[in-house]
Amino acid sequence: MEILVMGAGVGGLAVARGLLAAGHRVRVFERAPGWRTGGAAVMIFSNGTAVLDDLGVSLDGVGARIDRIDALTSGGRLRTSQNIAHAAERYGFLTKVVSRRRLLERLADGLPGDLVEYGRECRGVEQDGRRVTATFGDGTAATGDLLVGADGHHSAVRARLWGEGSVAPATFGTWQGLSPIDVEVTRSHTNLMITGREGACGLMPAGEGLLQWWFDVRWTPSDPRPADPLADMRRRFGHWASPVPEVLAAAPEGDLAFFGHHWNKVRRVWGEGRVTLVGDAAHIMPPTLGQGANQTLEDAWVLGRELAKGGDPVERLRAYERARYPHVSLVSRMARRNPANWRIPPMIGRLFPETSQTAMLARFSNRLTALAA
Ligand SMILES: Cc1cc2nc3c(=O)[nH]c(=O)nc-3n(C[C@H](O)[C@H](O)[C@H](O)COP(=O)(O)OP(=O)(O)OC[C@H]3O[C@@H](n4cnc5c(N)ncnc54)[C@H](O)[C@@H]3O)c2cc1C
């Protein structure tokens, strides 16, 4: 089949890889004028690395392996500790933090050089029962058998399918950066999640001497942005226990970017006819569980498997959405409750099993469920 993919982020490239390998003709249309090099780093859990492995994508030599996630109080006391290496042993796939730039490089590695058509912003989608046509901001159009909207948070394809207003702001946003900050956690295999009255701070090693650092703060879209965000972070969080003050002292202003988070209720049916969605276009959620990109990779994996079954492609698209629904809707509901930022008292946190993330990952994942079956 000839398949049109809107968006060349994590989802668009993963979908293209899988469908090209299955012998389909694929064209990817990206609004941006070129390759995305920013966007800091993402945590790819065992479910995501398993999908990447199936797509022939290796993260060897990039990013940092994560073995533990420790949640701390702002005073430095341990709230909970999660043994992430246990999931790697159970499923055979590591958890890694990798910069978005490296992840996209690896996803694009080996794909045809002219696969992605940059500067092509999808503005409209029409279908007539046999073919589907995308129209672009430059007045051009492309026609194929199927269309996949992988155009992220502000998806034009989703707006066409669901109308405007289907996504709502969450209650908080993140100031984050990816910087060469030489503190112990940068050289470790541990992700620190620190929570206090003022908000939350996350620190994780991202390889190549880089630290992914972020601060979650309460937010509504009408909030004015601070004139000097780094000074604002230092004022709010600078009195927390080490290493927060050291990170704030070393953090370069230019690396700081803000993301206000959004959420939509995951639908049982995402698409219509010959059109479907993957990734944030279908299920935007706050990044508290670090599963957004992982769920996007899961979408690409299931979509590829469904289309490989042959038969009516429209029915295959709906089967893909049905297969993803129970897993991604669970992740989405949990991410909305924001458990990573809960201030669990250390006395209670000690009672939590260290390996609970392992079983939870299988519940989040079509890929790991298939592995276990
Ligand atoms: C602060 C923050 C931290 C995060 N941390 C993690 C994490 O640790 N782990 C994790 O798994 N996930 C994380 N996520 C979520 C993750 O980044 C997303 O879920 C993931 O990038 C979704 O991939 P996507 O391909 O759907 O969208 P994107 O990666 O956003 O790609 C969409 C692409 O479509 C293009 N596009 C947009 N509109 C159009 C159009 N009209 N026509 C053509 N192209 C278009 C865009 O330019 C972009 O290239 C985080 C998100 C944020 C904001």
Describe the structure.
The chain is an alpha/beta fold. It has one domain: 3-Layer(bba) Sandwich (FAD/NAD(P)-binding domain). It has 12 helices and 18 strands. It has helices at 10-21, 46-54, 85-91, 100-108, 156-162, 229-237, 244-250, 292-308, 313-337, 346-349, 356-364, 366-372, and strands spanning 2-6, 25-30, 41-44, 64-65, 68-73, 78-83, 96-99, 116-118, 122-127, 132-136, 141-144, 146-149, 168-179, 190-196, 199-205, 211-218, 257-263, 275-277. The strands form 4 sheets. The protein has a 7-stranded mixed β-sheet. It has a 5-stranded parallel β-sheet with strand order 8-2-1-12-18, with helices on both faces. A 3-stranded antiparallel β-sheet has the order 3-7-4. The protein is globular. The protein starts with a strand and ends with a helix. The model has no long low-confidence stretch (mean pLDDT 95). Flavin-adenine dinucleotide binds next to α1, β2, β3, β13 and α8.
Q: Ranges with pLDDT <50 over ≥5 residues?
A: none
Helix and strand sequence: EHEEHEEEHEHEEEEEHEEEEHHEEHHHHH
Ligand catalogue: flavin-adenine dinucleotide
Secondary structure class reads alpha/beta
CATH topology: FAD/NAD(P)-binding domain
- If you compute it from the alpha carbons, what radius of gyration comes out, rounded to the nearest whole angstrom? 20 Å
CATH architecture descriptor text: 3-Layer(bba) Sandwich
Let me know the number of strands.
Answer: 18
Strand percent estimate: 25-35%
Q: At the fourth CATH level, what is the homologous superfamily?
A: FAD/NAD(P)-binding domain
